[in-house]
Write a structure and sequence with these properties.
174 residues; alpha+beta; minor pseudopilin epsh fold; four-stranded antiparallel β-sheet; 34% helix; elongated
């Protein structure tokens, strides 16, 4: 019986425990990076969706005020996820929503009327029977801290988006 000696230089047929642990740590790190990256895109999409819905809501209110020839008041509720409308009895017919809510990851941070200071108080804004209002800016903030400002020029209803309050100051300056 001739046995061959086990060579010290032979390679094992399996991974060692250290190699498995290194691979698991690398997979966990890459997964964390991927999740963080995707979360940033989701927050950006949530902010864009909330801004789009607010723009549409403003256009509907202005069109309805012009159609009825009556003023409509709506208010922003900072630190909540909604904007509500108070208007003439005709608004209760269900033709347009009386309140908009968006993804709970987004809330109204601050509101500015005209060139006044930003506030976190509930601010009513009236659109007159010609569909005109004061200029206003609304800061939308995601739960992760990302934010965008939506500026509406009251006479025309034109809407702009900004990233910083300095840009808002420049646009709302008289």
């Amino acid at each position: 019986m001739n046995r061959s000696p086990i060579l010290a230089t032979s390679t094992p047929n399996a991974f060692t425990l250290v190699e498995l642990l290194v691979v698991m740590v690398l997979v966990a790190a890459l997964s964390g990076i991927a999740i963080y990256s995707v979360q940033g895109h989701i927050d950006g999409a949530s902010l864009a969706d909330a801004a789009d819905r607010l723009e549409t809501f403003d256009r509907q209110i202005r069109a309805r005020a012009r159609q009825d020839g009556q003023p409509i008041t709506f208010s922003f509720n900072p630190l909540q996820e909604s904007v509500s409308v108070k208007g003439p009895q005709s608004l209760r017919s269900g033709e347009m929503p009386r309140e908009i809510k968006w993804n709970s990851k987004v809330q109204v941070g601050r509101v500015r009327l005209g060139n006044g200071p930003a506030t976190q108080n509930t601010l009513p804004l009236t659109v007159n029977g010609r569909g005109q209002s004061k200029n206003y800016a609304v800061q939308l903030v995601s739960k992760s801290g990302a934010s965008t400002w939506l500026i509406t020029l009251g006479l025309s209803g034109q809407q702009l988006r900004c990233k910083t309050e300095d840009e808002v100051d420049a646009l709302l300056r008289p």
